[in-house]
From TrEMBL:
Keywords from the UniProt entry: Dioxygenase, Oxidoreductase
UniProt entry tagged with the keyword Nucleus: no
UniProt GO MF annotations: dioxygenase activity
Name this polypeptide is given: Alpha-ketoglutarate-dependent dioxygenase AlkB
Domain (Fe2OG dioxygenase): residue spans on this chain: 110-207
PROSITE patterns: FE2OG_OXY
SUPFAM superfamilies listed in its UniProt record: Clavaminate synthase-like
Length: 210
């Protein structure tokens, strides 16, 4: 348990970076990647304008509703398979596309699809998982932008007792890279006392095989 190696760098004054060099993963966190104003405008826009659905998944042979709402979005070829279901992407919302573009420039790597999650309150959550679908390729870099209330985000190593907990504040950018999806799991736990909603965007890249 406990926090592992922690290094704090500052690439430039506008975007201070915290980097965690974990065994088999590199986690980078930029707290105020979006300004408070940009984050709140984007939250209001996306909450209202996207076709949010509370999807069902198959768990131990039963269909259960997931404890949050989602939208899968991006380039048309970016199919996403999740618990025996294939999701076809929604076309880009212009603000989300602009964010993907800005992220690609900032991080120097392409992003062409995104899973958006809307957690109405602290009861809504996402369980332990890794984003290791084959279509994401080997050791994908996944960039996560948070809006709305601050929530805890946890990582744990698959085979050793190492854990890391971070608070994801509105406007923060988290990058999961290295072998993170191969060696670690992550989740957004319930926080019963948190009221207010959070919207998270996890940007990914899926190659066009056509
Ligand atoms: O809401 C979060 O911060 C986590 C989202 C996540 O892990 C995912 O979309 O795969
Ligand atoms: Fe994830």
């Amino acid at each position: 348990m406990g926090i592992l190696t922690r290094q704090v760098h500052s690439d430039n004054l506008h975007y201070p970076l915290q980097q965690f060099n974990l065994p088999g993963a590199t986690i980078s966190l930029w707290q105020d990647w979006l300004s408070a104003q940009q984050a709140s405008i984007l939250l209001a826009q996306l909450q209202l304008q996207l076709p949010w659905t509370q999807d069902s998944i198959l768990m131990f042979g039963k269909t259960v509703k997931i404890p949050r709402k989602q939208v899968w979005m991006g380039e048309a070829h970016c199919q996403y398979r999740y618990s025996a279901t294939t999701f076809t992407p929604q076309p880009w919302h212009p603000s989300v596309q602009a964010l993907a573009q800005r992220l690609s420039e900032f991080l120097g790597q392409p992003f062409n699809c995104v899973l958006l999650n809307l957690y109405a309150d602290g009861q809504q959550h996402m369980g332990w998982h890794a984003d290791n679908e084959r279509e994401l390729g080997h050791d994908p870099a996944i960039a996560s932008v948070s809006l709305g209330v601050t929530r805890r985000f946890e990582l744990k190593h698959r085979s050793a007792a190492w854990q890391l907990a971070l608070d994801l504040t509105p406007g923060s950018l988290l990058l999961m890279a290295g072998g993170c999806q191969q060696h670690w799991l992550h989740r957004l736990p319930k926080q019963s006392r948190v009221s207010g909603c959070r919207l998270n965007l996890t940007f990914r890249y899926i190659k066009n095989m056509a």
